[in-house]
Design goal:
The model has no long low-confidence stretch (mean pLDDT 95). The protein is of the alpha/beta class. 29% of the residues lie in helices and 25% in strands. The chain has two domains: 167 residues, FAD/NAD(P)-binding domain (3-Layer(bba) Sandwich); 133 residues, D-Amino Acid Oxidase, Chain A, domain 2 (2-Layer Sandwich). The strands form three sheets. Strands 5-6-4-13-14-15-12-16 form an eight-stranded mixed sheet. The protein has a six-stranded mixed sheet with strand order 7-3-2-11-18-17. Strands 1-10-9-8 form a four-stranded mixed sheet, with no helix packed on it.
C-alpha cells in the first residue's frame, strides 16, 4: 500500500467478521481497505464448522440469540447473492440440528417459544428412521429443523471475490503496527509498508483483537480458545443432519465429507494439533455414528476462537477514541452471528438505528 493512502474506513482483520463488515460498509457507499496480518480467512473463519446456530442455543444469552436469529433469516439471500455475483457457492444447506439424549424441558420450551424456534421431540424409532447410521440408545432427541450450515471456506472465498468486485482493497500479510490517533480521534493506522489514513477504523482481529487495542488503554477481555477438528471421507447421505451429542458434533457436507469437532482448549496462541485430541475426536465421532469407524480421517486441524466470558461479542465504538470501532469476541458463533454483527457495526459507524438495541454489545 502506498504511503499516506486515504480511505473512508479501515478494517483490521480479514476473517469472516472483517469481510462482512467491509461488504456492508462498501454497499453503503464507503471506500474500505481491509488489512490482514496473515492470509484472509485462514484463522477461525476457515477452521470452524459453519453451523448457523449456537450448538446449544438455549444456553446462550439473549444478546447472542438475537444476532443468530437475524443472521439465520438473511443467510439464504446472502449466499444466493454471493453465488450469483461471483460464481462461488457457499453451499447454504438446511440440514437441521439433531440433538441426541436431550428431552424437551420446560426451559427449552420457554426458549423456543420466546424466540419462535420450531423444535420437534423424537423417540428412538423416529431417530433411527431419520438417521439410521447413528448408534442406539440415544433417545429422546430434539430436532431443530430450520438450522442450516454453510461451507465456511467457500463463504469466505465468495466474500473475497465480491469485495474485489466492489472495489474494496484487500491487503494480506500487512499487519497493523500502530493506530494513529490525534486529539482523541482516529486518523488511520501504520503498517510496515506505510501509513493508511482513515477517520474510522474497525478492529475485527478475532483472537488477536486485544493486542491491537492494548495501546488505547482498553484491556479487551477476548482470549484465544483452541479448537481442534477432524474430517472424514464418507459418502453423501451417510448423515442427513448436523448431529450433536455430549459436547461434540458431526457436520455432513453435500459431497459426503463429515466434520467432527471439537475441542475447547485454553492454550494461548498455540495452534498446534495433538494426537490426544485426534483420538478423542475419533472416539466421540464413532460413539455417535459407529459407521464412521470404516471411514478414513483425511484431515486434522486447529483454530483459535476469540473467547469472551459470556460469549457476547463487543460491537461498538471505543469509549474514548472517536472513530475507533470494535467487532470482536464471537467465540464459537462467528459464522452463525456474522451478518448481524457486521450490520450492527455498520449501523453504529454510520450513526443510524439498527435492528436491535446495541447496549449489550458495548465495552
Amino acid at each position: 500500500m502506498a504511503q499516506n493512502d486515504s480511505v473512508d474506513c479501515i478494517v483490521t482483520g480479514g476473517g469472516l467478521i472483517g469481510l462482512l463488515c467491509a461488504l456492508y460498509l462498501a454497499q453503503d457507499g464507503l471506500t474500505v481497505t481491509v488489512l490482514e496480518r496473515g492470509e484472509l480467512c485462514r484463522e477461525s473463519s476457515w477452521a470452524g464448522g459453519g453451523i448457523l446456530s449456537p450448538l446449544v442455543p438455549w444456553d446462550y444469552p439473549d444478546a447472542v440469540s438475537r444476532l443468530a436469529a437475524w443472521s439465520q433469516q438473511r443467510f439464504p439471500a446472502l449466499a444466493d447473492d454471493l453465488k450469483e455475483q461471483t460464481g462461488i457457492d457457499p453451499e447454504w444447506t438446511r440440514s437441521g440440528l439433531l440433538m441426541l439424549d436431550t428431552a424437551l424441558s420446560a426451559e427449552i420450551r420457554r426458549w423456543t417459544g420466546h424466540h419462535h424456534v420450531e423444535v420437534l421431540e423424537l423417540d428412538a424409532d423416529a431417530v433411527r428412521s431419520g438417521e439410521p447410521s447413528l448408534a442406539g440408545g440415544i433417545a429422546p432427541a430434539l430436532l431443530l429443523p430450520a438450522v442450516a450450515q454453510v461451507r465456511n471456506p467457500r463463504l469466505c472465498a465468495a466474500l473475497r471475490a465480491r469485495l474485489l468486485q466492489l472495489g474494496v482493497q484487500l491487503h494480506e500479510h500487512e499487519a497493523v503496527q500502530r493506530l494513529t490517533i490525534t486529539r482523541g480521534c482516529m486518523t488511520g493506522v501504520e503498517t510496515e509498508r506505510g501509513r493508511v489514513r482513515a477517520g474510522r477504523v474497525v478492529i475485527a482481529g478475532g483472537a488477536w483483537s486485544a493486542q491491537l487495542l492494548g495501546e488505547t488503554g482498553v484491556a479487551l477481555p477476548v482470549t484465544p480458545v483452541r479448537g481442534q477438528m477432524i474430517l472424514y471421507q464418507a459418502h453423501p447421505g451417510l448423515l442427513r443432519h448436523i448431529v450433536y451429542s455430549g459436547g461434540y458434533y458431526l457436520i455432513p457436507r453435500r459431497d459426503g465429507l463429515v466434520l467432527a469437532g471439537s475441542t475447547l482448549e485454553y492454550t494461548g496462541f498455540d495452534k498446534a494439533t495433538t494426537d490426544a485430541a485426534r483420538e478423542l475426536l475419533r472416539a466421540q465421532a464413532t460413539r455417535i455414528a459407529p459407521v464412521l469407524s470404516d471411514c478414513p480421517v483425511i484431515r486434522h486441524w486447529a483454530g483459535l476462537r476469540p473467547g469472551t466470558r459470556d460469549s457476547i461479542p463487543f460491537i461498538c465504538e471505543h469509549n474514548e477514541i472517536k472513530g475507533l470501532y470494535i467487532n470482536a469476541g464471537h467465540f464459537r458463533n462467528g459464522v452463525a452471528t456474522g451478518p448481524a454483527s457486521a450490520r450492527l457495526l455498520a449501523d453504529c459507524l454510520l450513526g443510524i438505528d439498527s435492528f436491535t438495541d446495541p447496549a449489550p454489545y458495548t465495552l
